[in-house]
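ok trying this again, last paste got cut off
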Amino acid sequence: MRRVLVVAFAAALSMASAESHGFSHVVQPGEALAQIAERVYGDPKRENVLVGANALDAKGGAIITPGMRLEVPSPAHHVVLHGETWFAMSLAWLGTSDLPRAELLARTNKGVSWVQPLEGQEIEIPAVLSYIAGDGETVTGIAQRFWGNGNRGWELNTYNGREGVAVRRAEVVLVPMPGLRLTEAGRAEERAAAERDGASAMSVEPQRRADAEMPQLLADIRYGRYAEAVARGNRILGGGALTRPQLATLHRGLLEAYVALDARAAAAAACAAWRANEASPELDPVRVSPKIRAACAVP
């Protein structure tokens, strides 16, 4: 049961990680996924990106309803600073400085990893989906779904530092999308969303700090360092305004830590905060421990 909980939390963590870029779209009456994809990406077939990024198929279907908040993946942009390398920018923007990710970043910008970018050059950071695998999936199928070429499954393994064709249920597979770009209408919506959500440089900095610390929070929970997890989680929460996915991830982690420490009131509060920030939190009695269901007042 512990392993299942860690996998589920890892999925949530990956959704809010440094690999993710994009903006939120609130579904309007009469909108369909293909219609949204055509407006923001210029291609209705890109609805598969919206489905994958929001784990809609993992929740039993790809139906959307008015008022639902969708995350719309998009590339980011960065002006190269003095002395920055592809590896350093890969660490900052793609989560690690490993060669595969540095090479991807360089190729996206028509460069190579062993030739440093020019100071002042504006580079594109590709969108990266955090895809939650379902039953019986393979890297071949995921590559076919998002890249249109199943033979590129090995590239997914390389990017994710994994081996094998089969993918476990609920495993998170990061799928880089270098060719994914916004239309002018999409860019306008992204700008409007940034203004609406107050995503200024000052508000983004706490979010980036949270992204950097959340992997250690996951490790604390995985290895039973629950007191450290609680201290770290509350320090992140006090560091500034966070996004709703980040808040959901943090409170989900704190819920598990408080339950393990038998801090029932704190666990109940963490569960309430988690459920307030995640649209449809899963409390499947098969996958979630009785103690967590009890903290959440779920029979």
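PB: full thing came through this time. The longest strand covers residues 127-132.
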